[in-house]
Amino acid sequence: MGVLNVKPNFAPMQKQLTLLFLLFFGSIIHAQEPVAKDTVVRYANIGYDAKGNEVSFLSDTPPLQQIAGAPKAFYSYYWEFGDGTYSTEKDPKHTYKKTGSYEAKLWATNNYDTGKPPATRPKEVVINEITKTVDDLATMTDDFMLKRNREPMIDEEMVMIVSYKNTNNYSSSGNIHLFYNEIAFKSDNFLEPEIRMHHGETLIPTDVMVYNKDHNPTNTFLTSIENELFSYSNQPQDSTKKTNLPLSMEEAKQLYRSQKSISFENMQPGEERNLFLTMRTAPEMIKDTSAIISVRGIYVPDNNYGDHTVKDMEMEIVTSHDPNKMSSNGVLMNYRLVRFKTLKYKIKFQNNGEGPARTIRLETDIPDMLDMSTLKLEDQYPACPICPKEPVRYSCLDTTFLKNKAIFTFKNIYLPGTEQKNVQEKDSTKGFVKYSIRFAKDFHKQKTKSRTAIIFDKNEPIITNYATTRFTPGISIGIKAGYNYYPKVENAQSYFLSAVVSPYKPYRFYGQAEFSNSFNSNTSTTSMDQIVDDPRNGSIQLQRTITATEQKSVNWEVPVLLRYNINNYLGIGAGVQTNINVSNTTHNNVTVEYYEGDSDQFLMDSKTDTSSEKESFTNWRTGILLDFTAGFSRLGPSLGARYVMNNKTDFNYWQLYALWRF
């Protein structure tokens, strides 16, 4: 289309853009660097003293490594006795019902400690005689319970306790289905579990599952609940009773990619049993410490009927075992569908004092992009009613909602302290508040951060971690069309059509890639006169040579930009691009005219020669571009102007366009 002999100096601008790209991508790489692992292994030992079939166990744990600024560090304990029973006491006593050899296991969890939980080797316990009889005591408040000994930590193991009970007045056989590794997360959070069964249960291959068809198809509701390893005497154990078993199974398979199914037989009326699963977290599990993950259990007490119980157990990812924690289920959300999502937050706390807490105040930050008017209290412990306006003497929970803060205050309660005399069960010192909230009408695609100040009576506040919410980038496809203006090229015409790919409705900085197909043409005419001898009579004559050139080309361009939205209506960007002529056709018409004498008054003769030349994939160029848009900068229609500076001997040009993002 033409050549300019102007070579602008792009070195300063290229250096600035290079620095901008390095800073941008460098921050991403730094954010993805792995956290250094603690390689120091500590051990906890098991001791015991057996008198007949009555055994006293002793835990020998290594010294704690206190987290600076945290409450006093302590251990919490979880024991398995090898006969299908367990305990959470520090040094429990257990009476075995039968003689034999049992393998006792211990998991000690180091709360407010900087190291890994100590490893423990199982201990063999041999019972040779029965000197004491023990009656079975009913401990379950529901027919199906999911519990755990600790929160999941990256590259560590936790134990899930599955407790089930026969509430029928007859002996029955049934199944338990466990689902884990949510499809919502890209990678698995747990590896293949180790399952310990003590009552003749067997694993069922998932490809031969048969569901009972006796069900009520109208009863298809589903509610998620959580049962933690709390020993609260008044803690409610909610259950979701359903009858459409095939539907419940299909719903679970839509949410989880891993499944274990277990069959049991001949369970007597009122009998309670436990299953134990060692769940080791995967190295590639989600790293967000404010994320909530879950497992689901489906309990079918009798294979002859479709009645079943569905329960979910929610867990928070941790990097250290801190009972004071805030978490959210909004770790990764689809921005296109977020209008239909309700965020759920959970604040957990623990009294680490030497006496009971009477008043506990939770001051929680609420991000601007959330609608305070939609905040709803979902659950809490200690369980108590909402406080009325007038002062009362009974236990209650006071709720105060400010512009960007929610305050939950437990009044007139009794929550034991971990250092309190005669408090053996550490879980009895814990509590929580769970609430839900929706997004406001106008909000941007931003990460949010919330944390809570926990105040026990008149003590100094304990500040939790940040509970964060994030959005997946999403994909936005755009269509772009416009006109290229070449200031230094005469009679040039250039139109283009482009496809644009960028994140869906980005807030500020984002990357954008394009593919453009340009259709270009330009014409030029030159004329040259010269006096030559007339071969006919030896006189002189005027010879005029007229050259008309027409060029047509199809050009591919691939720009890559780093863009910034100033607000909802204005955006700027800078980047680089490469382009190449896919096809280029040149038509030349050369006309030679002869005139009598030395003037062009009398045309004597004229002849024209025509030639064409075709080339493909030529004239490869790179360049730097600056871009500006006005309209709807994040989604929808906008108008834009772009200036492209080529770093070769080709021309610079303006690009004027209309863009619509979907």
Automatic annotation (TrEMBL):
It holds the Pfam family DUF7849. Gene3D superfamilies: Immunoglobulins. It comes from the Bacteria. Residues 68-111 form the PKD domain. CDD domains: PKD. Keywords: Signal. Residues 1-31 form the signal peptide. Transmembrane segments: none annotated. InterPro entries: DUF7619, DUF7849, Ig-like_fold, PKD/Chitinase_dom, PKD_dom, PKD_dom_sf. This is PKD domain-containing protein. It comes from Arenibacter palladensis.
